[in-house]
Design goal:
Layout: E1 17-19, H1 20-25, H2 27-34, E2 39-43, E3 46-51, H3 54-85, H4 93-98
Length: 99
Amino acid sequence: MSETMTMDKPVFNTDQLISASKAAKKFGAVRKNAKTTPQFITDNGEVDSVVLGYAYFEQMFSRLKELEELDETRILAERINRLENDPDSAISWKDLRRS
């Protein structure tokens, strides 16, 4: 992708932060809490990992696939439009394979 993408960082509260050592000792509680709210595991005070419930993961996965398909459709539409407006810019498949 040629455009630079910026990503906003997730917002969370201190109740969602748990140290790696505490998460290891209380993993059952971390998993239980992750079913309703993502849990951010810290290592040396920095967020290192995220535990989230599978239902939330499925939603994220589904939305990502949807956005990828929309982006692919947009790119193809732009290419078709460019070729319709400037047919001479087309490169034959035969020429493309030679390069």
